[in-house]
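Subject: for your reference before the review

Hello V.,

The reviewers asked for a structural picture of the protein, and I figured it would be easier to keep everything in one thread rather than splitting it across files. Below is the amino acid sequence we used in the manuscript, unchanged from the supplementary table.
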Amino acid sequence: MFDLRLRTLLGVQRLQDVTWDDLQALLNNENAAEGPDIDYKAGPEPYKTGTEGAGEFVKDVLALANTSGGVLVLGVAEDRATSVPAAFVPVPLLDRVRKRYRECLAQRAAPYVECLIHFVPNAPGSNEGVMLVAVPPSASAPHAVTGFKDPYDGNLRYPWRNDNTTSFMTHAQVKNAIMAAMATSTARREVLLQAERDVLDSGVGGPIHVVTLVPDMPGSFTVNKASVEAFSASPRDFTWHPRHVLGHTAVGPRRLIATDAPSGGHHVAHLHTDGSGAWRSRATLITCINDAYTFSQAPIPCWDSQNLVEAALDKTTYLVRHATDTAGAAGTATLQISLNSAAPMQLGWWDEAAGAPFPFSAAACSEASGSASLLLDTAREGASDLVAAVAAALADLYQNFGVAEPEELTLDGKVNISRWRSRGREATERWAQAAGVELTVAQDRNGQ
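And here is what came back from the structure prediction:
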């Protein structure tokens, strides 16, 4: 999401690392001239309060999203003749301003666009400086401003960046943009399905758990000797899997392959050059007692809910890092979690109070999948956003079994630690505290 040109100019890879000293590199720098990917606005009030100012802000954000993504730089004035940034004219860096901008997007952007807003104060403790609004390229384009001048007039206007100016699309441009978005969506869906098929065809059999991640706007990296060596030497920092679980590296067509054994084993990950990836593993089952009252019926194998959650969190974290750090992908991505077994099985959980495992789903499935969208940049830097995406994908998956959502996570990005059995609870607590994920204690399916 953080624009490549701006990263190069500032010498900083992450938006949240930009400092006031870094921004000095922009002034009077011809390479930093305003263009399709950078839009400068001088302070102290680049957008007035009220409906018209809200429409202007949303227009500028959506113009970047409808083109190729970029950064709205608030607090910098450019030379009108050359479009080169000439001076700092600071803007107020206040949470209420950030909130107002986000509300403007929620109310006036159709469809909504995710963006990151970063404050760069001009001195320690100052509430003035430069505000960076990083906008990802969007697979949901074209985005429209609803009621540019009046939010109630019902008109839709589609902005875009025409070099260093913002214009509105013509009818023909809107039509072409919609057709391009539909083609992109179809193509990326096929990429996701093919990535899942490829990884399912490798490794050992048995009940399978697969996590697949496909950026909506592809990234890129080259498979060569240097990238293979760098990948082989990169740390495998997993929370619920052993570090050696993907310790063997191989090369495939336009991808790197990581496995837990030289010839493929229980864990196989395919990491593609466009930033997409899939990691399959043999799922851990739990042998459940089918009758919670008499214990009279024969035990049955079930999908272990806690193991599914643990595996999904580790795998998604790994695939997000590949997409962002290795392939340089940004913006939104589709996350899919799938299960595959020879015979239908229910979801099961360990009831520590009863000291026994029980099935809890109404239905049994041999094949099921669930998907959700996530923003790569926030999922990479903010674990709670990643947890929320995993929870949403698992909820979509669990609904195939007649269960609304997993109880180990919440849809707003928290860990319901009361639903984790003692095995794995301590590791989960350590991870959540280190990652800044809130722990909560919520009622279980029995209201307890």
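For the response letter, the relevant points are probably these. The chain has a mean pLDDT of 90. The CA atoms of residues 191 and 214 lie 7 Å apart.

Happy to draft the paragraph if you're swamped.

O.
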